[in-house]
């Protein structure tokens, strides 16, 4: 089943999301850019606050928007990893040296940090063969998601559903967790879930359209309801054949 990720701008928004039970709470400050980072102290405090919550969502946190240089990306990732957050999300764009950044992050994976690459669909060509998916897997990344750096148009204006399906298949073939995001709306949920990514990510749709506006509980309920109504496509065990006796 495809799950969902909810981006939260500050600790005060978390109680508005928890009743809707997203699988991942993504700590990200949308007013500070596509991958705007929370303060590390706030991430660590949120991890502590939710640690004992039964069935708590996973927590991810972004490292901020950085130029594609290892000396910028690696220390930022290390700083967020030190908070103990479950997943560290790192953005990759084709400009600069994304390959060298990925290689510089491999030691973090070896230390047990679960990193998720965020690949910007409006910056990379719409073909998973052009993305550094092999390299991410070889470096020990846990997942790769496709998102958009610009928020004016949704993901599906940049990549069509066949291209998105290729992305899901390609990342899955590398044993990476797979996510799709980028100004997604409730109306996108059935078609994108049918591609079977591990999760779909939302911010704008949870705020009634404007991602910096703050969480709107009614908009959250619309997203959660759309997921609750999806068919369960998980393969079921076959009933055993009747015995011949
Ligand atoms: O990680 C997911 C993003 O926060 C999605 O934000 P968005 O729906 O505003 O593009």
UniProtKB/TrEMBL annotation:
Reaction equation(s) it catalyzes: 2 D-glyceraldehyde 3-phosphate = 4-(hydroxymethyl)-2-furancarboxaldehyde phosphate + phosphate + 2 H2O
Keywords on record: Lyase, Plasmid, Schiff base
Active site: 28 (schiff-base intermediate with substrate), 89 (proton acceptor)
One matching Pfam family: 4HFCP_synth
EC number(s) reported in the record: 4.2.3.153
A GO molecular-function annotation: lyase activity
InterPro entries reported for this sequence: 4HFCP_synth
Superkingdom of the organism of origin: Bacteria
Record's function text: Catalyzes the formation of 4-(hydroxymethyl)-2-furancarboxaldehyde phosphate (4-HFC-P) from two molecules of glyceraldehyde-3-P (GA-3-P).
Protein name: (5-formylfuran-3-yl)methyl phosphate synthase
């Amino acid at each position: 089943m495809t799950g969902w990720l909810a981006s939260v701008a500050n600790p005060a928004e978390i109680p508005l999301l928890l009743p809707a039970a997203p699988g991942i709470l993504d700590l990200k400050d949308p007013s500070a850019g596509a991958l705007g980072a929370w303060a590390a102290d706030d991430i660590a405090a949120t991890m502590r606050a939710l640690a004992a919550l039964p069935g708590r969502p996973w927590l991810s946190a972004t490292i901020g928007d950085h130029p594609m240089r290892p000396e910028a990306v690696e220390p930022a990732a290390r700083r967020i990893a030190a908070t103990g957050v479950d997943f560290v999300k790192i953005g990759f764009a084709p400009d600069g040296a994304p390959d060298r950044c990925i290689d510089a992050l491999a030691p973090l994976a070896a230390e047990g940090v679960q990193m998720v690459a965020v690949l910007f669909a409006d910056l990379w060509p719409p073909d998973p063969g052009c993305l550094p998916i092999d390299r991410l897997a070889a470096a020990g990344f846990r997942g790769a998601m496709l998102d958009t750096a610009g928020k004016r148009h949704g993901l599906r204006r940049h990549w069509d559903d066949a291209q998105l399906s290729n992305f899901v298949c390609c990342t899955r073939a590398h044993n990476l967790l797979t996510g799709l995001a980028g100004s997604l709306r409730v109306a996108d949920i059935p078609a994108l879930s049918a591609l079977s990514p591990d999760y779909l990510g939302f911010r704008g749709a949870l705020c009634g359209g404007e991602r910096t506006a703050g969480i709107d509980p009614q908009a959250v309920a619309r997203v959660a309801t759309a997921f609750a109504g999806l068919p369960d496509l998980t393969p079921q065990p076959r009933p055993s054949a009747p015995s011949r006796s």
